[in-house]
Amino acid sequence: xxxRTRFVSWSQSINTVVSRRFSLGxxxxxxxxxxxxxxxxxxxxSVELSPDVVLLVGVExxxxxxxxxxxxxxxxxxxxxxxxATVDGGGLVTAVDTGxxxxxxxxxxxxxxxxxxxxxxxxxxxxxxxxxxxGRRQYVEYVPGELPLVISVPHGxxxxxxxxxxxxMGVLVTDALTVETAHAMRDALVQRTGKAPHLIISHLKxxxxxxxREIAFGAEDNPYAENAWNEFQGYIExxxxxxxxxxxxxxxxxxxxxxxxxxxLELGYLLNASALNLSxxxxxxxxxxxxxxxxxxxxxxxxxxxxxLRGDQSFGALLGAQGIPxxxxxxxxxxxxxxxxxxxxxxxxxGSRHGGTVSGIQIELHYRGIRDTDENxxxxxxxxxxxxEGYMVSHWGFFAVSPK
Length: 404
Ligand SMILES: [Zn+2]
Prior knowledge:
The chain is α+β, with helices and mostly antiparallel strands. The chain is built from 10 helices and 22 strands.
């Protein structure tokens, strides 16, 4: 028998997420009995599907699965659960509803299978403050708020689903107790103003997802991690859209934890230590405001940039007034040679460095006295709430009440 490979079809729709190819394609040598006489004749046919692990996101999203067939018989396609996804005679799979199905291609006596998972996000027409909205498998949570404040927590999650392999690159350690600290911040803001901030949490452990890096690095080509990454970023964008709609501008905080030697908050404005180590005059003359994550705030302020960054109306100053040490601040204006985190992907993307009216700050929390006990987290939340209110009233001219 002449062996030949038939490529049935291959294309991929834009909203389809396909995994790296796993070698699950089945190759089944078949013994064919003819005439009942006991003679067997081997037919070396096989079917391999590519991709063979697929996540489709959204109703009617599609993927065309390619069948490599070693004979020239027709290929017959079936889906074990057409209420999840259907397949047509050419291998085109179409999503119907959330669930898992197996798509099989049969040719002669051989077959290959592909696992197709579908995630259809519930349609939400109006996000209600204080209600938790979850993405697929509750990996990512969004608690909408009413304040012009968005808080995200990328590294505090605890979930380790087996469908996502452990990441292999970069920093893998969890920011311990940052989810709990974010909830303490939210509680304190509600207590203080009667209104809540928008809160976005990744519940995946950092070894499964890094939502503070670009997707290729943060999800390592795994479709389930990529979907969670998109949900995390999408919820932040939804929250900022809401803030801009309601207030015109606002503040974004990306919450992290550090284990550096100096026990202080590290406030990241996308300016590294060598920039912050400059004099005020150098900072103000060097165009650093436009490189910072508070570019929009600096542009509307009557104060000099260094004043906004570390003067008596800076976020660091207002935290200091609450007994919370931070750098940069009037009493601690420069990191010097100490280790210091200046801000990451989220602060860069969701602050105002590249435009927009929502300015951003990365907050790196030390452990002792801040994250370590429930009592300390509550005390920190209370101080943070006062500092945020003072900061926004001072620079934006509003906080809990919309200016419109
Ligand atoms: Zn972190």
